[in-house]
Amino acid sequence: EYEGDRNSEGQRHGFGKALLPNGDTYEGEYECGLRNGPGTYRFKNGALYTGNYLQNKKHGKGVFFYPDGSKYAGDWVDDQRQGYGEYLYANGDTYTGEWANNKRHGQGTYVYKETGSKYVGCWVNGIQDGPAELIHRNYRFKGRFLSGKPLGRGKFIFDIGCEQHGEYIQPVQEKEEEEEEEPPLPLEPIWKASEITKLTPWPP
Fold first, then answer.
1. 78-197: in CATH 2.20.110.10
2. Separation in Å, CA 10 to CA 18, 19, 132
3. Buried b vs exposed e over 5-22: b needs ≥16 C-beta within 10 Å?
4. For residue 126, how many C-alpha atoms fall within 13 Å in the half-sphere facing its CB?
5. Most buried one in 32, 86, 152, 155, CB count within 10 A?
6. Are 4 and 14 in contact, with CB atoms under 8 Å apart?
């Protein structure tokens, strides 16, 4: 069902409201039969998108409310979260930063609601990867991450005015003789401290 403006060819064109066969509804701008420009799309499952469209796809600025209570507000390209945006997760965590292909990608800040800790740094395909800071209530870690875990040289900076330098080392998996059906879980990197110093100025 559709009520709204049409062009001389009879296509939906201008402002209109539509009830789609799957039970979703759309209210907003059309151009030559396609959703184009600002509009609001309500999904039957309770999700809602309000924002910009380009040829039936979410494109430009928009806000998406998911059925689980989470929400994304930011840039869209070709129906994907892409560019800059903020995501509020169902558990209260938030991510603010860069996106590509629906995933956290580039520079961004992730705040853990339960602990108040935050990760500020690089992401690759949704995973913490690259130089970053992990900031806790009274200390922080500055170093590099690889596949979501700290690895290599870094330092802990404590609010009381000192630093602990060292590195995260990936322990080697010990081989067992028996055939294992499941691959073993990767071991957690181990922190090896080298020195404790007074605060050093941040490199520019």
1. yes
2. 15, 18, 55
3. eeeeeeebbeebebeeee
4. 5
5. 155
6. yes
